[in-house]
């Protein structure tokens, strides 16, 4: 019985934890490049997922086309979010920049209501993978799809940041924007690209979570905050560590739901966030992506 519980916790925890991990990486990318906490990250997932659902109904997208469409639209959404927040307030105070992301979150939630309504929308499984059993562990189709999308995203993003000129430019801006500018790097371009990459990650997260929990007009803020908690757990310092922070959060929530009560998971998550913010060392505030 105990083993069955543990197997179910692993299956459910990895499915949600992969989504939290992708959201967390988006937070870390934007924070490290611009020192901005983007509270509209959840709406990137929401609008990206709803648009993908409409496209899949109209065009019956095959898996490769669905991935390409999600990545492209996420990239565009990320650029649009940058243009309406940090792009128009680059010299504003951090508080004003933060409030712009909150305002963008509310505006995009309104857009979701206008175009898709308030009823939950089920995103079909656009990357169908067969379930897998490994000994006592059983991984459902949703879990395997979420893991495949998230692990591939982590690997590709890590390679991009470490092996390409543009990726190294983003890292240089995150370390010292003044020195990067003296080397001919445009910090504004790197900020915009960080938002765009966060949009791509959010679109991948939408493909992973849509078939699990459906897409609702009010889900963006909650998922965004979970990503923020996961990024804080991971320390913002490296893509793999931030992703593992999301996986850990997903496993903790799955254990709480199965062993205690689903009503406790939100409370425990935010208590954990308060504790991390209070106890986190100051070095974490200046962490850089690796």
Overview of the molecule:
With 290 residues, the protein is mainly alpha-helical. The chain has a single domain, classed as ABC transporter involved in vitamin B12 uptake, BtuC (Orthogonal Bundle). Helices cover 75% and strands 2% of the residues. The protein has 11 helices and 2 strands, in the order ααααββααααααα. A two-stranded antiparallel sheet has the order 1-2. Strand 1 and strand 2 form a beta hairpin. Helix 2 packs across helix 9 and helix 9 packs across helix 11. It is globular. The mean pLDDT is 87. InterPro entries: ABC_transp_permease, BCAA_transport_permease.
Structural class: mainly alpha
Query: Helix fraction?
Result: over 70%
Order of helices and strands: HHHHEEHHHHHHH
CATH class: Mainly Alpha
Q: Low-confidence runs (pLDDT<50, min 5 residues)?
A: none
Task: Report the total helices.
Answer: 11
CATH architecture field: Orthogonal Bundle
Protein name: Branched-chain amino acid ABC transporter permease
InterPro entries: ABC_transp_permease (IPR001851), BCAA_transport_permease (IPR052157)
Membrane topology: Multi-pass membrane protein
Subcellular location: Cell membrane
């Amino acid at each position: 019985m105990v083993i069955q519980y543990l197997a179910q916790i692993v299956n459910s925890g990895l499915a949600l934890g992969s989504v939290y991990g992708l959201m967390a990486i988006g937070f870390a990318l934007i924070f490290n490049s611009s020192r901005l906490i983007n509270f509209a990250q959840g709406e990137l997932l929401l609008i990206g997922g709803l648009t993908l659902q409409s496209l899949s109904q109209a065009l019956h997208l095959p898996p490769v086309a669905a991935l390409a469409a999600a990545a492209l639209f996420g990239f565009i959404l990320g650029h649009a979010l940058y243009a309406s927040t940090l792009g128009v307030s680059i010299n504003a105070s951090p508080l004003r920049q933060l409030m712009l992301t909150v305002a963008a979150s509310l505006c995009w939630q309104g857009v979701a209501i206008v175009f898709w309504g308030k009823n939950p929308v089920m995103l079909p499984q656009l990357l169908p993978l067969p379930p897998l059993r490994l000994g006592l562990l059983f991984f459902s189709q949703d879990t395997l799809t979420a893991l495949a999308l998230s692990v591939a995203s982590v690997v590709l993003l890590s390679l991009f940041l470490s092996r390409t000129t543009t990726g190294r430019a983003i890292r240089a801006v995150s370390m010292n924007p003044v020195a990067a500018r003296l080397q001919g790097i445009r910090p504004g371009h790197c900020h915009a690209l960080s938002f765009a990459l966060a949009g791509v990650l959010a679109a991948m997260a939408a493909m992973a979570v849509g078939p699990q929990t459906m897409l609702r007009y009010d889900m963006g803020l909650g998922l965004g905050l979970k990503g923020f908690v996961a990024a804080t757990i991971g320390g913002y310092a490296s893509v793999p560590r931030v992703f593992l922070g999301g996986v850990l959060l997903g496993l903790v929530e799955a254990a709480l739901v199965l062993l205690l009560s689903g009503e406790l998971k939100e409370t425990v998550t935010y208590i954990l966030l308060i504790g991390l913010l209070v106890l986190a060392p100051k070095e974490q505030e200046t962490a850089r992506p690796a």
